[in-house]
Amino acid sequence: MAPPGEYTLASRGAKRPARAENRRPPAPATYPVRTEEDLLTVRHAVRAATVEVGFGLVDQTRVVTAASELARNAYVHGRGGTVTLEYPREPGGRRGLRLVVKDEGPGIADLDAALTDGFTTGGAWATGSVALVG
């Protein structure tokens, strides 16, 4: 599980053609999440990243949607934060995409209670990890 205030969204991309496997992955990039415009910037950056690592259209949509929801929650409930895009590579050459969303909110005092069915935080935001595997 990620530290409080941090969400990790990881997904493995498709194996790229041999010529692309030799390319150096893009450097990690961090985007602020402080305004509505920042949310749009994050969506565009994540979409471009999913294309870069070779995700199909359905997986692109899933990752962009999940990232958008996490970024919006960081903005609305977590007092702002950041989204970092990283490009891990498996030893066999398979490229991936890791998104780390951090917020600046207070978290939830009793996480075990918050994870039970029917619990509501009444406006507070929980922390945790989400993994998508393509």
Structure description:
This protein has 134 residues and is of the alpha+beta class. It has a single domain (6-16, 23-111, 124-131), classed as Heat Shock Protein 90 (2-Layer Sandwich), CATH 3.30.565.10. 34% of the residues lie in helices and 21% in strands. The protein contains 4 helices and 5 strands. A 5-stranded mixed sheet has the order 2-3-4-1-5, covered by helices on one side. It is globular, with a radius of gyration of 16 Å. The two termini are 20 Å apart. Residues 15-20 and 124-134 have low confidence and may be disordered. InterPro entries: HATPase_C_sf, HATPase_dom. Residues 1-33 are annotated as: Disordered. Residues 36-118 form the Histidine kinase/HSP90-like ATPase domain. This is Histidine kinase/HSP90-like ATPase domain-containing protein.
Layout of SSEs?
Blueprint: E1 6-12, H1 18-21, E2 29-33, H2 36-52, H3 57-76, E3 81-86, E4 96-103, H4 111-114, E5 130-131
Parallel strand pairs: 1-5
Antiparallel strand pairs: 1-4, 2-3, 3-4
Helix pairs in contact: 2-3
